[in-house]
Amino acid sequence: MKKIFCFVNLIVLSFFFSLSSFALDREPYLTLGLGTGCIVYGDDVETSISGSSRAIATTDALIHLPLAEQLNFMAGTDLVGDFVISGSEHFLRYDYAFLGGLEVLTPLTGLSLSVSYAIGRRTDFVALKDENDDLHTWHGSTKWGNGFKFSLDYDFGALTGGWAPMVGAYWRNMPRGNDKRDNIIAVYLRIPIVL
After folding, report:
1. What is the sign, positive or negative, of the torsion defined by CA atoms of 157, 163, 164, 170?
2. How far is Cα 158 from Cα 162, in angstroms, rounded to an integer?
């Protein structure tokens, strides 16, 4: 309940922060990101099946609200999918988080750093065969945890003065209960959309 309360507070704060953007020359904008990365699981998580292939995809949607000339408030969501598939057997893991934080626009044109508070969890869908070749499926979710996401972005549009994509990388550290933490490292391409 406390985590839901914190997230509602972030939404309310974003409304008040958006009022301050009217006093600045910069407009609020939305970014949609797509990328890939690696995950270091903190608990005993299987990451391979004999003859399997693996893909990791990341996506996020963030709203950037100007607070000051070099500072933005950010809020949004982050989704990471880890897919290990071998025929009918699979490990499908979805990590999802809600974010709120600050983005600092550095004096180096186009470069920004951000830190966000994250509330999220991971849901696993598993299908494995036993020794009799019978397929068994199950799913489960970790506890909700609150962690942090650190990002480094570069906006090519700041150099060209027009529209251009952004590239970036992040590290998200998410507690999973019982002193276990997942570490997600990703690189991505973001598309900015002016609101």
Report:
1. positive
2. 7
pTM more than 0.85 = no
The two three-digit tokens of residue 16, written as one number: 């008040």
What span, in angstroms and rounded, lies between the C-alpha atoms of 23 and 20?
6
**Tens digit of each residue's pLDDT (9 = 90 or more) over 21-30:** 444 677 899 9
Measured CA angle at 186 (ends 142, 46), to 5 deg: 45
Residue 81 DSSP one-character state:
E
CA 29, CA 190: separation in Å to the nearest integer? Answer: 12
pLDDT of residue 63 exceeding 60 = yes
User: Which residues share a beta bridge with 62?
Assistant: 31, 76
Cα–Cα distance for residue pair 120/177, rounded to 1 Å: 12
Question: CA-to-CA distance for 58 and 169, rounded, in angstroms?
Answer: 11
